[in-house]
Amino acid sequence: MSTSPEAASADRFRRLAETPMRSVGAPVGIRPQDVLASVRDLLSQREMLDLLVRRDLKAKYKDSALGFLWSLARPLLQLAIYFVVVGQFLSAARGIPDFAVYIFSGLIAIGLFTEIVVGGTGSILANAGLVKKVYLPREVFPLASVGSALFNFLIQLLVLLGATLLVRKPPLHPEVLYALPAFAVLVVYGTAFGLLFSALNVYLRDVQYLVEVGTMLLFWASPVVYSWQMVSTSISSPFWLNVYTNNPLTLAVIGFQEAFWVAGEDAVQPDDLLLRLLVALAIGIVLVFASHRVFLRLQGNFAQEI
Questions:
Q1: Which of 5, 51, 95, 218 is deepest in the core (most CB within 10 A)?
Q2: Taking Cα atoms as reference points, which of 89, 50, 94 lies closest to residue 227?
Q3: pTM > 0.70
Q4: pLDDT, mean of residues 9-37
Q5: What's the pLDDT tens digit per position in 223-254?
Q6: Could you give the CA distance from residue 42 to residue 297 in angstroms, rounded to a whole number?
């Protein structure tokens, strides 16, 4: 006996009403089970994250003759400009041996942080189509910016190691281990700010421009084209010197210089650099957690705002 369309429709509505509601999305609480659920949700999207990283890298150099070699163009051009203008014209290189290695150590550190933050800030808007059509953890978009930034960083790191070989001073010393906590600080703080600013940028589009200005200020507030020793002799107040030195980005830059700038082994550097880096790393991990919680609370209206 056939069922009328009205009866079939009523049956469907009845079954839908009896189906329990299941929330979609990561929990936004701070309980341990909420945090673990968020992590599991992200880990389940590993393949999607890998695809997004590959897509970002391919899209950036699509149809270019040199391809990924362009990832070297900007830092090498920066190196040439700073080496000639700051190092030679302004005579900064006279007080800094192997000035090219020194400055490139700082440039790749700053470049990693800047690329993560700037790329992460615009990642949600850049993937507006996916955000509006498909559910997946929104965090994968700023995290994909982290992945592509790490790829470019590895290429630049190989160039830096090649430069140390050219000057016959490879980093075969214990201080090379400073690169590990310095690298971790850059990635952790970059990820924290990338998550936070990517969410805020959806609601206030001026954030991406403020981030560009802020990263430029952080560049000049870090000892990249000048030495920390110059700052220590210019700032007479120990309090303000500590404020400057304990900037996580400053610590990470000095950590890279300690690791790869062998000619500066006798240069004056901050006391307890390793301890400062570890403290900055611990604070950064807390900041990642807080930024992620803010991101989860704001992501609910991403599709509507976009």
A1: 218
A2: 94
A3: yes
A4: 66
A5: 998 889 889 999 989 999 999 999 999 999 99
A6: 16
The one-letter amino acid code at 251 reads L
Domain count for the chain, please give it. Answer: 1
* Nearest partner of 292 among 39, 2, 17, judged by Cα: 39
Question: How open is the CA angle 244-284-219, to the nearest 5 degrees?
Answer: 40
Inside any domain, residue 145: yes
pLDDT at 291 over 90: yes
Q: Which residue shows structure tokens 């301890």?
A: 275
Structural element, H or E, at residue 75:
helix 70-81
Domain membership of residue 54 (yes or no) is yes
- Rounded Cα distance, 130 and 127, in Å: 6
Which candidate, 269, 86, 34, places its Cα nearest to that of 94?
Answer: 86
Compute the distance between CA of residue 275 and CA of residue 303 in angstroms, rounded to an integer: 43
Side chain identity at 157, as an amino acid letter? L
Range of the domain at 123: 29-305
Distance of CA 31 to the CA centre of its chain: 26
What 3-state class would DSSP assign to 8? helix
- Nearest-CA neighbor of 193 among 302, 115, 301, 255? 115
**Residue 7 is assigned to a structural domain of this protein:** no
Q: Which amino acid is at 68?
A: F
Residue 4 lies in a domain: no
Do the beta carbons of residue 190 and residue 120 sit within 8 Å? Answer: yes
